[in-house]
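Aim 2, interim progress. The first record below pairs a target sequence with its structure tokens.
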Amino acid sequence: MKKYKTGRLGYNDANKRYGLLITDLWEHDGFHCGERLEVQIDGEWVQTRMEMNREGDWYLVDTPFVGEGLEFLRVRIPEKD
């Protein structure tokens, strides 16, 4: 069974990217375009990836979440073997 690191999205001012926070510590300090993760929507885990639009706003592909709407979303990434 696959293991995940689960936390919330937060904006990292140091690198201008959204990253994964676990208990207010950076587990992943900034996602890059195309990087995959899962977001919890209505209790279900949905696969997505981080991208940036032409206006310079970060968003999660195939979800309604963009820009400041990403803050505090529950997300997870697979643990590395």
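The second target in this work package is listed in the same format:
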Amino acid sequence: MLNVNIKKLEIKNNKYENIKLKFENGVYIISGENGIGKTTLLNLIYNGEGINSEVEIEFFNNKLTKDSINNYHEKFITYIEQKEQFINYLTVLETIDLFLNSYNKKYMLELVENFQMDNNLNKKVSKLSGGEIKKLQLIIGLLKDSPIILIDEPQNHLDEQSSEYLKQVIDRMKSIKIIILVAHMFDKNDNKINYIEMDEKNIELKIAQMKSKSNVSTQKKKQKNETKYNTKKL
């Protein structure tokens, strides 16, 4: 479980107060207009602090403090950012080994194959394209196997096949991990995805729930694929 209590947050000219976000295992998409502060919110969840902010974070019954933040980053949370600084003269495999002390090699080979990076393991980072750099970021982040995963704009530079595979991986993980994304690659009518909606005045968590079979059967034509939300006013 991850609880984020935002007492005060200012993003550009937008001010937020008394926002409570509670995350259980599942997929959460941060949505809002460009420039509203979606990446800033991800950074806040990762670091526990930001510019002009007062935030409390509780993860698995532990409060995030200056003393616990290294443990939080090492064991509990992974942040796959839009850009990552890799060492250009290292190969892909050397980079994976550098970032991870240990990992599931079978799972690594699955990720490498499905992201079409199996022929690039011995290629130097300096020779990788933008799409291949993004795939390397995702492979490392997914191999870390943290209970909380943050991903910022994962679809950027990804080909369609890789985007579809990433959605499959996320779908497999959603029952055992908290996955929070800024992304445009998911169907908003998917009744298994939760949304954090940001606007100039509020940050609102909407929890997706499937309709009961009786409701679906009585309104089959009109509401066949409709998602029902229980909205928490924050």
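The radius of gyration is 19 Å. This observation will shape the mutagenesis plan for the next reporting period.
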